[in-house]
Amino acid sequence: MSDFAQTVKEQADIVKVIEGYIRLRKAGAQNYSGLCPFHKEKSPSFSVHAVRQFYHCFGCGVSGDVFSFVGKIENVGFPEAVRIVAGKCGIPLPKREFSSPEEAAEARQRAKLLELNETAAAWFEEQLRGPEGAVAREYLTGRGLTPEGIKTFRIGYAPDSFNALRDRLRGMAGEDLLRLSGLFAWKEQEDGSQGSIYDRFRKRVVFPICNESGRVIAFTARTLETGDKAGAKYINSPETPLYSKGQVLFNLDKAKSSIRKHEFALLVEGQMDCISVYLRGIQNVIATSGTAFTEQQVGLLRRHTAQVVVNFDPDTAGANAAEKSIALLTEEGFNLKLVTLDDGLDPDRFIRERGVEAYMAALRGARRQSDYLIERARQMFPGGSAEQKVKAMNYLLPHIRRLPERLARDQFAADASQKLGIDSAVLREELRQAALKRKDHVESRSTPLTEVERVLLRALAITDPDDERSRRLAVEALAQQPTWFEHLGSYAALQALAQRQAADPMDAVEDQEQRALLAETLLAETKPPAETEVQSAIQEIHERALEHRLRDLRALIAAAERTGDFAELAILTQQKLELDRALRQLQDPGPRQ
Ligand SMILES: [Zn+2]
Prior knowledge:
- The protein is an alpha+beta fold.
- The protein contains 26 helices and 16 strands.
- Bound molecules: zinc ion.
Protein backbone atom coordinates (compact mmCIF):
# COMPACT_ATOMS: atom_id res chain seq x y z
CA MET A 1 0.00 0.00 0.00
CA SER A 2 1.35 3.42 -0.92
CA ASP A 3 2.00 6.03 1.76
CA PHE A 4 -0.94 7.99 0.49
CA ALA A 5 -3.31 5.02 0.67
CA GLN A 6 -2.02 4.32 4.18
CA THR A 7 -2.71 7.92 5.22
CA VAL A 8 -6.21 7.77 3.79
CA LYS A 9 -6.88 4.47 5.52
CA GLU A 10 -5.78 5.89 8.85
CA GLN A 11 -7.95 8.97 8.51
CA ALA A 12 -11.06 7.41 7.02
CA ASP A 13 -13.73 6.01 9.27
CA ILE A 14 -15.07 2.87 7.63
CA VAL A 15 -18.38 3.17 9.47
CA LYS A 16 -19.00 6.65 8.05
CA VAL A 17 -17.90 5.66 4.57
CA ILE A 18 -20.11 2.55 4.51
CA GLU A 19 -23.02 4.51 5.95
CA GLY A 20 -22.81 6.62 2.83
CA TYR A 21 -23.97 3.55 0.92
CA ILE A 22 -26.09 1.44 3.23
CA ARG A 23 -28.00 1.85 6.45
CA LEU A 24 -26.11 0.66 9.51
CA ARG A 25 -27.32 0.15 13.05
CA LYS A 26 -25.19 -0.12 16.15
CA ALA A 27 -25.00 -3.76 17.07
CA GLY A 28 -22.46 -3.87 19.88
CA ALA A 29 -19.72 -1.92 21.57
CA GLN A 30 -17.59 -1.85 18.44
CA ASN A 31 -19.86 -3.24 15.78
CA TYR A 32 -22.46 -2.00 13.37
CA SER A 33 -24.67 -4.15 11.24
CA GLY A 34 -26.88 -3.79 8.20
CA LEU A 35 -28.21 -5.55 5.12
CA CYS A 36 -25.40 -6.79 2.93
CA PRO A 37 -25.18 -4.86 -0.36
CA PHE A 38 -23.43 -7.80 -2.01
CA HIS A 39 -26.02 -10.55 -1.63
CA LYS A 40 -29.77 -10.89 -1.22
CA GLU A 41 -30.94 -10.91 2.34
CA LYS A 42 -33.73 -9.80 4.56
CA SER A 43 -32.13 -9.86 7.97
CA PRO A 44 -28.79 -8.15 8.45
CA SER A 45 -25.68 -10.31 8.40
CA PHE A 46 -23.29 -7.60 7.26
CA SER A 47 -21.08 -6.25 10.05
CA VAL A 48 -18.65 -3.42 10.34
CA HIS A 49 -16.01 -3.35 13.05
CA ALA A 50 -15.53 0.26 14.11
CA VAL A 51 -12.27 -0.24 15.98
CA ARG A 52 -10.53 -2.59 13.61
CA GLN A 53 -11.97 -0.81 10.59
CA PHE A 54 -13.13 -3.72 8.48
CA TYR A 55 -16.39 -5.23 7.28
CA HIS A 56 -17.51 -8.82 7.05
CA CYS A 57 -20.68 -10.50 5.84
CA PHE A 58 -21.71 -13.67 7.66
CA GLY A 59 -24.07 -14.43 4.79
CA CYS A 60 -21.86 -14.38 1.70
CA GLY A 61 -18.45 -14.23 3.36
CA VAL A 62 -17.13 -11.00 1.83
CA SER A 63 -14.76 -9.01 3.98
CA GLY A 64 -12.09 -6.39 3.78
CA ASP A 65 -11.11 -2.83 4.55
CA VAL A 66 -12.58 0.48 3.50
CA PHE A 67 -10.92 0.37 0.07
CA SER A 68 -12.15 -3.12 -0.66
CA PHE A 69 -15.71 -2.06 0.23
CA VAL A 70 -15.66 1.03 -1.97
CA GLY A 71 -13.95 -0.86 -4.78
CA LYS A 72 -16.63 -3.55 -4.70
CA ILE A 73 -19.63 -1.31 -4.41
CA GLU A 74 -18.49 1.28 -6.95
CA ASN A 75 -17.03 -1.41 -9.14
CA VAL A 76 -13.64 0.30 -9.42
CA GLY A 77 -10.03 -0.74 -8.93
CA PHE A 78 -7.88 -0.08 -5.89
CA PRO A 79 -6.38 3.29 -6.95
CA GLU A 80 -9.81 4.66 -7.80
CA ALA A 81 -11.20 3.37 -4.48
CA VAL A 82 -8.42 5.19 -2.63
CA ARG A 83 -9.27 8.39 -4.47
CA ILE A 84 -12.98 8.04 -3.72
CA VAL A 85 -12.37 7.45 -0.02
CA ALA A 86 -9.91 10.35 0.09
CA GLY A 87 -12.54 12.54 -1.55
CA LYS A 88 -15.17 11.53 1.01
CA CYS A 89 -12.82 12.34 3.88
CA GLY A 90 -11.66 15.62 2.39
CA ILE A 91 -8.07 14.48 2.04
CA PRO A 92 -6.37 16.32 -0.83
CA LEU A 93 -5.22 14.03 -3.63
CA PRO A 94 -1.61 13.75 -4.69
CA LYS A 95 -0.70 13.72 -8.33
CA ARG A 96 -2.57 10.86 -9.91
CA GLU A 97 -0.93 7.45 -10.02
CA PHE A 98 -2.19 4.39 -11.84
CA SER A 99 -1.17 0.78 -11.68
CA SER A 100 -1.24 0.36 -15.46
CA PRO A 101 -1.30 2.51 -18.59
CA GLU A 102 -4.69 0.97 -19.54
CA GLU A 103 -6.15 2.02 -16.22
CA ALA A 104 -4.83 5.53 -16.66
CA ALA A 105 -6.29 5.72 -20.16
CA GLU A 106 -9.65 4.45 -18.97
CA ALA A 107 -9.80 6.95 -16.13
CA ARG A 108 -8.88 9.77 -18.51
CA GLN A 109 -11.61 8.66 -20.88
CA ARG A 110 -14.25 8.55 -18.15
CA ALA A 111 -13.23 11.96 -16.86
CA LYS A 112 -13.43 13.40 -20.38
CA LEU A 113 -16.85 11.80 -21.01
CA LEU A 114 -18.16 13.26 -17.75
CA GLU A 115 -16.86 16.64 -18.82
CA LEU A 116 -18.58 16.36 -22.22
CA ASN A 117 -21.88 15.37 -20.59
CA GLU A 118 -21.62 18.19 -18.09
CA THR A 119 -20.85 20.75 -20.77
CA ALA A 120 -23.73 19.45 -22.89
CA ALA A 121 -26.12 19.68 -19.91
CA ALA A 122 -25.13 23.28 -19.23
CA TRP A 123 -25.42 24.09 -22.91
CA PHE A 124 -28.92 22.55 -23.16
CA GLU A 125 -29.96 24.61 -20.12
CA GLU A 126 -28.66 27.73 -21.84
CA GLN A 127 -30.60 26.90 -25.01
CA LEU A 128 -33.79 26.55 -23.00
CA ARG A 129 -33.38 30.06 -21.66
CA GLY A 130 -32.54 31.44 -25.15
CA PRO A 131 -34.96 32.57 -27.87
CA GLU A 132 -35.10 29.14 -29.53
CA GLY A 133 -36.14 27.60 -26.24
CA ALA A 134 -39.48 29.43 -26.15
CA VAL A 135 -41.42 26.47 -27.51
CA ALA A 136 -39.87 24.17 -24.89
CA ARG A 137 -40.49 26.62 -22.07
CA GLU A 138 -44.10 26.80 -23.10
CA TYR A 139 -44.36 23.01 -23.06
CA LEU A 140 -42.78 22.78 -19.61
CA THR A 141 -44.97 25.53 -18.16
CA GLY A 142 -47.96 23.66 -19.55
CA ARG A 143 -46.82 20.64 -17.57
CA GLY A 144 -46.77 22.68 -14.40
CA LEU A 145 -43.03 23.22 -14.12
CA THR A 146 -41.72 26.40 -12.51
CA PRO A 147 -38.35 27.98 -13.36
CA GLU A 148 -37.01 26.69 -10.01
CA GLY A 149 -38.16 23.17 -10.83
CA ILE A 150 -36.53 23.38 -14.24
CA LYS A 151 -33.32 24.49 -12.55
CA THR A 152 -33.45 21.72 -9.94
CA PHE A 153 -33.62 19.01 -12.58
CA ARG A 154 -31.41 20.93 -15.01
CA ILE A 155 -33.96 20.50 -17.77
CA GLY A 156 -32.76 21.88 -21.09
CA TYR A 157 -33.55 22.21 -24.74
CA ALA A 158 -31.83 20.69 -27.76
CA PRO A 159 -32.42 23.10 -30.65
CA ASP A 160 -33.54 22.07 -34.12
CA SER A 161 -30.04 21.68 -35.50
CA PHE A 162 -27.74 18.86 -36.64
CA ASN A 163 -24.51 20.53 -35.62
CA ALA A 164 -25.05 23.11 -32.87
CA LEU A 165 -23.93 20.85 -30.01
CA ARG A 166 -21.24 19.26 -32.17
CA ASP A 167 -19.75 22.68 -32.86
CA ARG A 168 -19.92 23.51 -29.16
CA LEU A 169 -18.05 20.34 -28.09
CA ARG A 170 -15.64 19.93 -30.99
CA GLY A 171 -12.81 21.82 -29.40
CA MET A 172 -13.04 19.74 -26.21
CA ALA A 173 -12.40 16.24 -27.49
CA GLY A 174 -11.39 14.19 -30.51
CA GLU A 175 -13.92 12.60 -32.82
CA ASP A 176 -13.59 9.14 -31.21
CA LEU A 177 -14.55 10.46 -27.81
CA LEU A 178 -17.45 12.45 -29.23
CA ARG A 179 -18.76 9.22 -30.80
CA LEU A 180 -18.39 7.45 -27.44
CA SER A 181 -20.26 10.18 -25.58
CA GLY A 182 -23.70 9.11 -26.78
CA LEU A 183 -24.54 12.69 -27.67
CA PHE A 184 -24.15 12.15 -31.40
CA ALA A 185 -25.33 9.84 -34.14
CA TRP A 186 -23.97 9.00 -37.58
CA LYS A 187 -24.80 6.96 -40.61
CA GLU A 188 -23.03 3.78 -41.53
CA GLN A 189 -21.50 4.36 -45.00
CA GLU A 190 -21.80 1.88 -47.87
CA ASP A 191 -18.12 1.02 -47.60
CA GLY A 192 -18.64 0.14 -43.92
CA SER A 193 -17.01 3.29 -42.57
CA GLN A 194 -18.75 5.62 -40.17
CA GLY A 195 -20.27 8.77 -41.55
CA SER A 196 -19.69 12.13 -39.92
CA ILE A 197 -21.37 12.78 -36.61
CA TYR A 198 -24.43 14.92 -36.02
CA ASP A 199 -26.47 15.93 -32.95
CA ARG A 200 -28.57 13.03 -31.64
CA PHE A 201 -31.11 15.21 -29.79
CA ARG A 202 -32.90 17.81 -31.91
CA LYS A 203 -35.92 19.94 -31.12
CA ARG A 204 -36.43 18.09 -27.88
CA VAL A 205 -36.78 18.88 -24.20
CA VAL A 206 -33.77 17.30 -22.58
CA PHE A 207 -33.60 15.77 -19.09
CA PRO A 208 -30.17 14.88 -17.72
CA ILE A 209 -29.77 11.45 -16.11
CA CYS A 210 -27.34 11.47 -13.19
CA ASN A 211 -25.44 8.77 -11.39
CA GLU A 212 -25.71 8.38 -7.64
CA SER A 213 -23.16 11.12 -7.06
CA GLY A 214 -25.21 13.56 -9.11
CA ARG A 215 -22.91 13.68 -12.15
CA VAL A 216 -24.62 13.83 -15.53
CA ILE A 217 -24.00 10.56 -17.40
CA ALA A 218 -26.76 10.52 -20.04
CA PHE A 219 -29.92 12.23 -21.28
CA THR A 220 -33.47 11.45 -22.07
CA ALA A 221 -35.21 13.71 -24.56
CA ARG A 222 -38.86 14.33 -25.35
CA THR A 223 -39.91 15.44 -28.79
CA LEU A 224 -41.73 18.72 -29.36
CA GLU A 225 -42.62 17.88 -32.95
CA THR A 226 -46.00 16.53 -33.81
CA GLY A 227 -47.07 14.43 -36.76
CA ASP A 228 -44.79 12.41 -39.03
CA LYS A 229 -41.61 14.27 -38.20
CA ALA A 230 -41.94 13.62 -34.47
CA GLY A 231 -40.22 10.23 -34.24
CA ALA A 232 -40.21 8.48 -30.90
CA LYS A 233 -41.79 10.45 -28.07
CA TYR A 234 -38.78 9.84 -25.85
CA ILE A 235 -35.26 8.93 -26.90
CA ASN A 236 -32.37 8.12 -24.60
CA SER A 237 -28.61 8.22 -24.76
CA PRO A 238 -27.34 4.85 -25.96
CA GLU A 239 -25.18 2.68 -23.69
CA THR A 240 -21.82 4.36 -23.14
CA PRO A 241 -18.83 3.71 -20.88
CA LEU A 242 -20.61 5.93 -18.34
CA TYR A 243 -24.20 4.84 -18.79
CA SER A 244 -26.06 1.59 -18.78
CA LYS A 245 -29.81 1.89 -18.67
CA GLY A 246 -30.50 -0.99 -16.31
CA GLN A 247 -27.93 0.26 -13.81
CA VAL A 248 -29.33 3.68 -13.03
CA LEU A 249 -32.30 4.76 -10.97
CA PHE A 250 -33.54 8.14 -12.07
CA ASN A 251 -33.36 10.73 -9.26
CA LEU A 252 -31.63 8.44 -6.75
CA ASP A 253 -28.95 11.11 -6.27
CA LYS A 254 -31.54 13.61 -5.01
CA ALA A 255 -33.86 11.14 -3.34
CA LYS A 256 -31.50 9.01 -1.29
CA SER A 257 -31.33 11.07 1.87
CA SER A 258 -35.11 11.40 1.95
CA ILE A 259 -35.51 7.66 1.27
CA ARG A 260 -33.43 6.92 4.34
CA LYS A 261 -35.24 9.46 6.43
CA HIS A 262 -38.70 8.16 5.57
CA GLU A 263 -37.48 4.57 5.41
CA PHE A 264 -39.15 3.86 2.10
CA ALA A 265 -38.81 4.72 -1.56
CA LEU A 266 -41.65 5.73 -3.82
CA LEU A 267 -41.16 4.10 -7.18
CA VAL A 268 -42.82 5.61 -10.25
CA GLU A 269 -42.52 4.77 -13.91
CA GLY A 270 -41.76 7.93 -15.84
CA GLN A 271 -39.24 10.68 -15.35
CA MET A 272 -41.97 13.32 -15.58
CA ASP A 273 -43.92 11.55 -12.83
CA CYS A 274 -40.81 11.53 -10.72
CA ILE A 275 -39.99 15.20 -11.30
CA SER A 276 -43.56 16.29 -10.70
CA VAL A 277 -43.89 14.40 -7.42
CA TYR A 278 -40.45 15.45 -6.19
CA LEU A 279 -41.02 19.14 -6.87
CA ARG A 280 -44.19 19.04 -4.80
CA GLY A 281 -42.22 18.01 -1.76
CA ILE A 282 -42.34 14.20 -1.84
CA GLN A 283 -38.62 13.78 -2.24
CA ASN A 284 -38.10 10.05 -1.70
CA VAL A 285 -39.24 9.33 -5.25
CA ILE A 286 -37.30 7.51 -7.96
CA ALA A 287 -38.16 6.25 -11.44
CA THR A 288 -37.25 3.19 -13.45
CA SER A 289 -37.68 5.14 -16.70
CA GLY A 290 -40.44 3.03 -18.11
CA THR A 291 -38.96 -0.42 -17.79
CA ALA A 292 -39.16 -3.22 -15.27
CA PHE A 293 -36.66 -3.24 -12.46
CA THR A 294 -33.30 -4.88 -13.03
CA GLU A 295 -31.17 -6.67 -10.43
CA GLN A 296 -28.59 -3.90 -10.55
CA GLN A 297 -31.26 -1.35 -9.76
CA VAL A 298 -32.45 -3.47 -6.87
CA GLY A 299 -28.87 -3.49 -5.63
CA LEU A 300 -28.68 0.30 -5.80
CA LEU A 301 -31.91 0.70 -3.90
CA ARG A 302 -31.16 -1.88 -1.24
CA ARG A 303 -28.40 0.27 0.13
CA HIS A 304 -30.97 2.82 1.23
CA THR A 305 -34.14 0.98 2.11
CA ALA A 306 -35.95 -2.35 2.01
CA GLN A 307 -39.42 -0.81 1.68
CA VAL A 308 -40.92 0.33 -1.58
CA VAL A 309 -44.25 1.87 -2.48
CA VAL A 310 -44.89 1.26 -6.18
CA ASN A 311 -47.04 3.68 -8.13
CA PHE A 312 -46.89 2.69 -11.80
CA ASP A 313 -49.20 3.80 -14.58
CA PRO A 314 -52.50 1.98 -14.54
CA ASP A 315 -52.35 1.07 -18.24
CA THR A 316 -51.52 -2.50 -19.23
CA ALA A 317 -47.88 -1.78 -19.96
CA GLY A 318 -47.62 -0.16 -16.55
CA ALA A 319 -49.31 -3.07 -14.85
CA ASN A 320 -47.01 -5.54 -16.58
CA ALA A 321 -43.91 -3.57 -15.67
CA ALA A 322 -45.23 -3.29 -12.13
CA GLU A 323 -45.72 -7.01 -11.98
CA LYS A 324 -42.19 -7.78 -13.13
CA SER A 325 -40.81 -5.26 -10.68
CA ILE A 326 -42.94 -6.70 -7.90
CA ALA A 327 -41.67 -10.17 -8.70
CA LEU A 328 -38.05 -9.10 -8.58
CA LEU A 329 -38.35 -6.89 -5.51
CA THR A 330 -40.21 -9.61 -3.64
CA GLU A 331 -37.59 -12.19 -4.46
CA GLU A 332 -34.97 -9.80 -3.22
CA GLY A 333 -36.73 -9.54 0.11
CA PHE A 334 -38.25 -6.07 -0.21
CA ASN A 335 -41.39 -5.13 1.64
CA LEU A 336 -43.82 -3.84 -0.99
CA LYS A 337 -46.96 -1.79 -1.17
CA LEU A 338 -48.82 -0.69 -4.25
CA VAL A 339 -50.84 2.37 -5.12
CA THR A 340 -53.47 2.52 -7.84
CA LEU A 341 -54.70 6.04 -8.50
CA ASP A 342 -58.33 6.87 -9.16
CA ASP A 343 -59.64 7.32 -12.68
CA GLY A 344 -56.61 5.80 -14.30
CA LEU A 345 -54.43 8.85 -13.67
CA ASP A 346 -50.65 8.72 -13.69
CA PRO A 347 -48.80 10.29 -10.74
CA ASP A 348 -47.91 13.46 -12.65
CA ARG A 349 -51.47 14.25 -13.69
CA PHE A 350 -52.95 13.15 -10.40
CA ILE A 351 -50.75 15.43 -8.32
CA ARG A 352 -51.25 18.37 -10.69
CA GLU A 353 -54.99 18.03 -10.84
CA ARG A 354 -55.81 16.98 -7.30
CA GLY A 355 -52.92 18.36 -5.30
CA VAL A 356 -50.26 16.98 -3.06
CA GLU A 357 -52.60 16.26 -0.11
CA ALA A 358 -54.75 13.95 -2.21
CA TYR A 359 -51.64 12.22 -3.47
CA MET A 360 -50.31 11.72 0.05
CA ALA A 361 -53.65 10.23 1.02
CA ALA A 362 -53.40 7.83 -1.93
CA LEU A 363 -49.90 6.82 -0.76
CA ARG A 364 -51.17 6.19 2.75
CA GLY A 365 -53.86 3.99 1.24
CA ALA A 366 -51.30 1.85 -0.57
CA ARG A 367 -52.25 -1.81 -0.54
CA ARG A 368 -50.11 -4.72 0.48
CA GLN A 369 -48.80 -6.52 -2.54
CA SER A 370 -50.85 -9.62 -1.79
CA ASP A 371 -54.07 -7.57 -1.81
CA TYR A 372 -53.02 -5.85 -5.00
CA LEU A 373 -52.25 -9.12 -6.75
CA ILE A 374 -55.41 -10.86 -5.58
CA GLU A 375 -57.41 -7.89 -6.84
CA ARG A 376 -55.61 -8.03 -10.15
CA ALA A 377 -56.25 -11.76 -10.42
CA ARG A 378 -59.94 -11.09 -9.88
CA GLN A 379 -59.99 -8.46 -12.60
CA MET A 380 -58.09 -10.64 -15.05
CA PHE A 381 -60.22 -13.71 -14.43
CA PRO A 382 -63.66 -12.45 -13.48
CA GLY A 383 -66.86 -14.40 -13.18
CA GLY A 384 -66.06 -16.79 -10.38
CA SER A 385 -66.49 -20.01 -12.36
CA ALA A 386 -64.34 -22.97 -11.33
CA GLU A 387 -62.24 -22.55 -14.47
CA GLN A 388 -61.61 -18.86 -13.79
CA LYS A 389 -60.64 -19.63 -10.21
CA VAL A 390 -58.04 -22.13 -11.39
CA LYS A 391 -56.59 -19.50 -13.72
CA ALA A 392 -56.54 -16.90 -10.98
CA MET A 393 -54.78 -19.36 -8.71
CA ASN A 394 -52.20 -20.27 -11.31
CA TYR A 395 -51.52 -16.59 -11.71
CA LEU A 396 -51.01 -16.12 -7.96
CA LEU A 397 -49.02 -19.24 -7.09
CA PRO A 398 -45.63 -18.05 -8.39
CA HIS A 399 -46.08 -14.78 -6.53
CA ILE A 400 -46.77 -16.65 -3.32
CA ARG A 401 -43.77 -18.92 -3.78
CA ARG A 402 -41.49 -15.94 -4.21
CA LEU A 403 -42.02 -14.54 -0.73
CA PRO A 404 -38.96 -15.22 1.39
CA GLU A 405 -40.86 -15.66 4.64
CA ARG A 406 -43.02 -18.60 5.55
CA LEU A 407 -45.47 -16.53 7.57
CA ALA A 408 -46.07 -14.11 4.71
CA ARG A 409 -46.64 -17.00 2.30
CA ASP A 410 -49.19 -18.56 4.66
CA GLN A 411 -51.02 -15.28 4.99
CA PHE A 412 -51.02 -14.66 1.25
CA ALA A 413 -52.32 -18.15 0.52
CA ALA A 414 -55.06 -17.83 3.14
CA ASP A 415 -56.13 -14.42 1.78
CA ALA A 416 -56.17 -15.70 -1.79
CA SER A 417 -58.26 -18.70 -0.94
CA GLN A 418 -60.72 -16.58 1.02
CA LYS A 419 -61.04 -13.66 -1.41
CA LEU A 420 -61.25 -15.81 -4.51
CA GLY A 421 -63.80 -18.01 -2.74
CA ILE A 422 -61.83 -21.18 -3.28
CA ASP A 423 -63.64 -24.11 -1.75
CA SER A 424 -61.98 -26.93 -3.68
CA ALA A 425 -59.81 -29.08 -1.42
CA VAL A 426 -57.37 -29.68 -4.27
CA LEU A 427 -56.82 -25.95 -4.87
CA ARG A 428 -56.46 -25.32 -1.18
CA GLU A 429 -53.84 -28.02 -0.96
CA GLU A 430 -51.94 -26.45 -3.83
CA LEU A 431 -51.95 -23.11 -2.08
CA ARG A 432 -50.74 -24.76 1.09
CA GLN A 433 -47.88 -26.42 -0.79
CA ALA A 434 -46.91 -23.09 -2.35
CA ALA A 435 -46.72 -21.57 1.10
CA LEU A 436 -44.70 -24.49 2.41
CA LYS A 437 -41.56 -24.06 0.39
CA ARG A 438 -39.86 -21.13 -1.13
CA LYS A 439 -38.59 -21.24 -4.69
CA ASP A 440 -34.91 -20.74 -4.10
CA HIS A 441 -33.63 -20.69 -0.62
CA VAL A 442 -30.39 -18.89 0.16
CA GLU A 443 -28.29 -20.90 2.57
CA SER A 444 -26.40 -19.04 5.22
CA ARG A 445 -22.78 -19.94 5.66
CA SER A 446 -21.79 -22.02 8.62
CA THR A 447 -18.41 -21.48 10.09
CA PRO A 448 -15.90 -24.29 10.22
CA LEU A 449 -13.96 -22.61 13.04
CA THR A 450 -13.51 -24.27 16.41
CA GLU A 451 -13.36 -22.34 19.66
CA VAL A 452 -9.63 -22.97 20.14
CA GLU A 453 -8.88 -21.63 16.68
CA ARG A 454 -10.79 -18.49 17.56
CA VAL A 455 -8.65 -18.02 20.65
CA LEU A 456 -5.46 -18.35 18.59
CA LEU A 457 -6.69 -16.03 15.86
CA ARG A 458 -7.60 -13.44 18.46
CA ALA A 459 -4.23 -13.82 20.16
CA LEU A 460 -2.31 -13.50 16.90
CA ALA A 461 -4.32 -10.42 15.91
CA ILE A 462 -3.26 -8.55 19.03
CA THR A 463 -1.89 -5.11 18.28
CA ASP A 464 -1.68 -3.66 21.78
CA PRO A 465 1.86 -4.08 23.20
CA ASP A 466 0.31 -4.62 26.67
CA ASP A 467 -1.09 -7.93 25.51
CA GLU A 468 2.01 -8.91 23.57
CA ARG A 469 2.73 -11.94 25.82
CA SER A 470 -0.45 -13.71 24.72
CA ARG A 471 0.54 -13.12 21.14
CA ARG A 472 4.10 -14.38 21.67
CA LEU A 473 2.84 -17.66 23.11
CA ALA A 474 0.83 -18.36 19.99
CA VAL A 475 3.60 -17.22 17.63
CA GLU A 476 6.14 -19.51 19.33
CA ALA A 477 3.86 -22.53 19.35
CA LEU A 478 3.22 -22.13 15.62
CA ALA A 479 6.94 -21.73 14.89
CA GLN A 480 8.08 -24.66 17.04
CA GLN A 481 5.30 -27.16 16.46
CA PRO A 482 3.80 -26.43 13.05
CA THR A 483 2.57 -30.03 12.70
CA TRP A 484 0.14 -29.53 15.59
CA PHE A 485 -1.71 -26.89 13.62
CA GLU A 486 -1.53 -28.23 10.07
CA HIS A 487 -4.93 -29.87 9.98
CA LEU A 488 -6.81 -26.77 11.20
CA GLY A 489 -9.12 -25.04 8.74
CA SER A 490 -7.62 -21.67 9.60
CA TYR A 491 -3.99 -22.85 9.37
CA ALA A 492 -3.09 -20.45 6.54
CA ALA A 493 -4.54 -17.49 8.43
CA LEU A 494 -2.73 -18.52 11.63
CA GLN A 495 0.59 -18.76 9.79
CA ALA A 496 0.11 -15.46 8.00
CA LEU A 497 -0.76 -13.73 11.26
CA ALA A 498 2.17 -15.27 13.12
CA GLN A 499 4.55 -13.95 10.50
CA ARG A 500 2.83 -10.65 9.91
CA GLN A 501 4.75 -7.46 9.28
CA ALA A 502 1.69 -5.32 8.65
CA ALA A 503 0.31 -3.33 11.57
CA ASP A 504 -3.24 -4.27 10.67
CA PRO A 505 -3.87 -8.01 11.09
CA MET A 506 -6.52 -7.93 8.36
CA ASP A 507 -3.82 -6.85 5.90
CA ALA A 508 -1.64 -9.83 6.77
CA VAL A 509 -4.06 -12.44 5.45
CA GLU A 510 -4.28 -12.35 1.71
CA ASP A 511 -6.44 -15.36 0.95
CA GLN A 512 -10.03 -14.19 0.85
CA GLU A 513 -11.61 -17.18 2.60
CA GLN A 514 -8.98 -17.19 5.28
CA ARG A 515 -9.50 -13.48 5.81
CA ALA A 516 -13.22 -14.09 6.17
CA LEU A 517 -12.48 -16.55 9.01
CA LEU A 518 -10.40 -13.91 10.74
CA ALA A 519 -13.01 -11.21 10.20
CA GLU A 520 -15.71 -13.40 11.63
CA THR A 521 -13.62 -14.08 14.71
CA LEU A 522 -12.63 -10.49 15.31
CA LEU A 523 -16.21 -9.29 15.00
CA ALA A 524 -17.22 -11.52 17.89
CA GLU A 525 -14.16 -10.57 19.92
CA THR A 526 -14.61 -8.69 23.17
CA LYS A 527 -11.08 -8.50 24.50
CA PRO A 528 -7.79 -10.19 23.63
CA PRO A 529 -7.34 -13.63 25.21
CA ALA A 530 -5.30 -13.92 28.41
CA GLU A 531 -2.10 -15.98 28.47
CA THR A 532 -3.79 -18.86 30.29
CA GLU A 533 -6.48 -18.98 27.64
CA VAL A 534 -3.89 -19.18 24.90
CA GLN A 535 -1.96 -21.85 26.77
CA SER A 536 -4.94 -24.12 27.16
CA ALA A 537 -5.91 -23.57 23.52
CA ILE A 538 -2.45 -24.66 22.44
CA GLN A 539 -2.66 -27.69 24.69
CA GLU A 540 -6.00 -28.68 23.26
CA ILE A 541 -4.67 -28.36 19.74
CA HIS A 542 -1.68 -30.47 20.73
CA GLU A 543 -4.03 -33.13 22.08
CA ARG A 544 -6.06 -33.09 18.94
CA ALA A 545 -2.96 -33.41 16.82
CA LEU A 546 -1.97 -36.48 18.85
CA GLU A 547 -5.44 -37.95 18.48
CA HIS A 548 -5.24 -37.27 14.80
CA ARG A 549 -1.94 -39.10 14.59
CA LEU A 550 -3.36 -41.92 16.69
CA ARG A 551 -6.21 -42.41 14.25
CA ASP A 552 -3.71 -42.62 11.40
CA LEU A 553 -1.65 -45.17 13.33
CA ARG A 554 -4.66 -47.36 14.01
CA ALA A 555 -5.46 -47.42 10.31
CA LEU A 556 -1.84 -48.28 9.46
CA ILE A 557 -1.78 -51.04 12.10
CA ALA A 558 -4.98 -52.54 10.72
CA ALA A 559 -3.46 -52.48 7.24
CA ALA A 560 -0.23 -54.14 8.43
CA GLU A 561 -2.25 -56.85 10.16
CA ARG A 562 -4.17 -57.55 6.97
CA THR A 563 -1.02 -57.85 4.86
CA GLY A 564 0.84 -59.76 7.59
CA ASP A 565 3.77 -57.31 7.63
CA PHE A 566 4.91 -58.11 11.17
CA ALA A 567 8.09 -56.02 11.16
CA GLU A 568 6.08 -52.93 10.25
CA LEU A 569 3.42 -53.92 12.77
CA ALA A 570 5.96 -53.99 15.60
CA ILE A 571 7.22 -50.49 14.80
CA LEU A 572 3.71 -49.08 14.49
CA THR A 573 2.53 -50.69 17.71
CA GLN A 574 5.51 -49.22 19.55
CA GLN A 575 4.70 -45.78 18.16
CA LYS A 576 1.12 -46.14 19.20
CA LEU A 577 2.11 -47.04 22.79
CA GLU A 578 4.29 -43.94 23.02
CA LEU A 579 1.56 -41.79 21.60
CA ASP A 580 -1.00 -43.20 24.05
CA ARG A 581 1.35 -42.39 26.91
CA ALA A 582 2.01 -38.85 25.65
CA LEU A 583 -1.67 -38.23 25.33
CA ARG A 584 -2.45 -39.49 28.84
CA GLN A 585 0.34 -37.38 30.20
CA LEU A 586 -1.04 -34.33 28.42
CA GLN A 587 -4.59 -34.92 29.58
CA ASP A 588 -3.64 -35.65 33.18
CA PRO A 589 -0.22 -34.23 34.00
CA GLY A 590 -0.51 -35.26 37.65
CA PRO A 591 -0.15 -33.06 40.71
CA ARG A 592 1.58 -29.73 40.11
CA GLN A 593 4.66 -28.87 42.08
ZN1 LIG B 1 -23.26 -10.64 2.01
